[in-house]
């Protein structure tokens, strides 16, 4: 029972051919030559390895035009600090896109720009987008076409523990060294023999409890173990390979673009590799994958284990420098040969707006089901209560019996970050007063319930000063409120000053002279006149301001030069 909320099954949106660039709808001479070379390579490969599956070389794009897979990659570096390292890129792609299953597998590889626009794609589309971002960030990244387990291909995480529920490793603080001149502790008067006996009994009890717990966990894993997959080793999947070297990567590893998790190249979830490619070349695996990827090596310059499509400068970049030590006369012969270079990418510039980066998820939300847990993620400012993450845990594997729910909010002035709701069954008994109508007592209860719900759901969220788009939306309202707020402030200020003067008169009227009383009466008369004028101006502003603002807005909209600058 895996979560299918983030797997799109509805038909894909139609492509507007009129808005597509010419590179999407046709091939230039260099691309046609590349397709001819790829077809020649495919025929030779099928002749030499008749038992192998067909290679993914020239799938069609969203416009129905064949393109070589390496030209679909578009190296891109976006101006967001989150996308400067591989972890941020993988997390963004996994959150931003929704999965379309390869059921059945088809040879369609959309452009990264179209995938980001529709926010949906297959595992190949996920890998193409992620690899494009990693190449732009300076990583030695490759797309991998191969085979994986059922859970990885179907994005089934129902048997994995939620990352938020995994116990955090506590770092023990080092013991402080004992100073030379320190107070000696009092002498321990407890028997060492009794202490050793108690420690021995406690260790035996802990060992028995640990053994019992391990046996229970083993039986639980056996009960939860999935049935054997009849299609094991045949399920097509695509992921990303990062080779060591660039950006201080110490060793090679895989990245699953669907979950943004990293795995070692010997992980048992990856069952075989057919080919890898980047924006410069395409390599076919000639190694045996009967036992998975455990014994595979990723030296793409080793011709006994990898077969390349193009012989060019990309081979010298990835090959071992020790194997490139050749005589000078051979280097001169290689320089004389004309090498065919990979055509440039046909994909238009990849661009992600700040609003899309903030929205993050398809539709602003994403749901992931783990083992006995459900994780809901929301974009900031999407919900009125500021909710960004909600983790619900269950007591059963079918996720039907609630245990508790943890709520994480942001952008709230009260800094309400964490709140846990414990679900405990309670018996509720309702009594009805027979002397009153049946709906009489119900509405009172509903009113109380609505008030309680309102205290949790509606909070005033604070918005960042750097979020200009949201402040622009409220700019006209703030400008309109400014005039009325000034009048209100003046009215309140004059009223408060008059009240203070009246309090002062009540305290000192017994000791005041006739001149002071005349000054006080004159001040009160002037203050009452000013308050009356301010009150009339405020009433007149409330009556006439809306019509004047509407007339001004209509006039600005009809203005030929100012209409384009309106918000």
From TrEMBL:
Originating organism: Sinocyclocheilus grahami
Designated name of the protein: Dynein regulatory complex subunit 7-like
Name of the gene encoding the protein in the UniProt record: ccdc135
Major localization class: other
Domain Dynein regulatory complex subunit 7 MORN: 362-400
InterPro entries: DRC7/lobo, DRC7_C, MORN_DRC7, Papain-like_cys_pep_sf
Domain of life: Eukaryota
PANTHER family in the record: DYNEIN REGULATORY COMPLEX SUBUNIT 7
Keyword set, alphabetical order: Cell projection, Cilium, Coiled coil, Cytoplasm, Cytoskeleton, Flagellum
Coiled coil: none
Segments of skewed composition (Basic and acidic residues): 193-203
Family: Belongs to the DRC7 family.
Region (Disordered): 176-207
Classification lineage: Eukaryota, Metazoa, Chordata, Craniata, Vertebrata
UniProt-annotated location(s): Cell projection, Cilium, Flagellum; Cytoplasm, Cytoskeleton, Cilium axoneme
Stretches assigned to the Dynein regulatory complex subunit 7 C-terminal domain: 491-566
GO terms classed as biological process: flagellated sperm motility
């Amino acid at each position: 029972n895996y979560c299918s909320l983030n797997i799109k099954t509805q038909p894909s949106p139609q492509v507007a051919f009129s808005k597509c660039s010419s590179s999407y709808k046709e091939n230039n001479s260099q691309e046609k030559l590349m397709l001819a070379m790829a077809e020649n390579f495919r025929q030779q490969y099928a002749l030499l390895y008749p038992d192998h599956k067909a290679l993914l070389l020239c799938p069609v794009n969203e416009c129905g035009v064949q393109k070589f897979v390496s030209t679909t990659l578009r190296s891109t570096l976006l101006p967001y600090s989150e996308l400067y390292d591989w972890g941020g890129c993988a997390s963004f792609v996994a959150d931003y896109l929704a999965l379309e299953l390869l059921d059945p597998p088809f040879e369609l590889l959309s452009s990264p720009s179209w995938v980001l626009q529709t926010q949906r794609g297959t595992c190949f589309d996920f890998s193409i987008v992620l690899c494009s971002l990693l190449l732009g960030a300076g990583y030695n990244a490759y797309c991998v076409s191969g085979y994986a387990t059922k859970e990885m291909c179907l994005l089934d995480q129902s048997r994995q523990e939620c990352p938020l529920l995994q116990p955090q490793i506590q770092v023990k603080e080092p013991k402080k060294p004992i100073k030379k001149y320190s107070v000696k502790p009092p002498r321990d008067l407890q028997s060492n023999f009794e202490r050793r006996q108690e420690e021995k009994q406690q260790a035996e009890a802990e060992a028995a409890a640990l053994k019992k717990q391990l046996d229970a966990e083993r039986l639980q894993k056996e009960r939860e173990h999935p049935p054997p997959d009849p299609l094991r080793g045949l399920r097509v999947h695509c992921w990303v390979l990062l080779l060591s070297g660039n950006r201080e990567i110490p060793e090679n590893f895989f990245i699953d673009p669907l979950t943004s998790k990293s795995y070692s190249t010997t992980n048992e979830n990856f069952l075989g590799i057919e080919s890898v490619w980047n924006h410069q070349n395409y390599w076919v695996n000639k190694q045996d994958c009967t036992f998975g990827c455990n014994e595979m090596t990723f030296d793409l310059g080793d011709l006994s284990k990898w077969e390349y499509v193009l012989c060019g400068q990309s081979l010298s970049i990835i090959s071992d420098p020790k194997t490139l030590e050749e005589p000078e006369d051979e280097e001169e012969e290689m320089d004389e040969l004309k090498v065919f270079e990979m055509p440039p990418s046909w994909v238009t510039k990849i661009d992600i707006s700040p609003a899309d980066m903030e929205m993050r998820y398809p539709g602003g939300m994403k749901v992931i089901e783990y083992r006995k847990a459900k994780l809901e993620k929301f974009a900031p400012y999407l919900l009125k209560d500021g909710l960004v993450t909600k983790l619900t845990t269950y007591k059963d594997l079918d996720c039907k019996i609630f245990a508790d729910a943890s709520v994480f909010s942001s952008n709230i002035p009260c800094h309400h970050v964490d709140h846990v709701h414990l679900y405990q069954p309670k018996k509720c008994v309702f009594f009805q007063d027979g002397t009153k109508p049946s709906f009489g007592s119900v509405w009172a209860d509903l009113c109380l319930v609505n008030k309680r719900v309102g205290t949790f759901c509606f909070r005033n969220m604070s918005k960042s000063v750097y979020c200009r788009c949201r402040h622009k939306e409220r700019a006209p309202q703030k400008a309109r409120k400014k005039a009325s707020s000034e009048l209100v402030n003046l009215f309140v200020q004059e009223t408060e000053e008059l009240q203070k003067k009246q309090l002062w008169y009540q305290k000192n009227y017994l000791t005041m002279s006739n001149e002071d009383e005349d000054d006080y009466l004159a001040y009160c008369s002037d203050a009452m006149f000013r308050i009356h004028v301010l009150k009339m101006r405020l009433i007149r502003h409330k009556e006439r301001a809306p019509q004047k603002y509407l007339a001004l807005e209509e006039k600005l909209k009809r203005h030929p030069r100012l209409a384009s600058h309106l918000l």
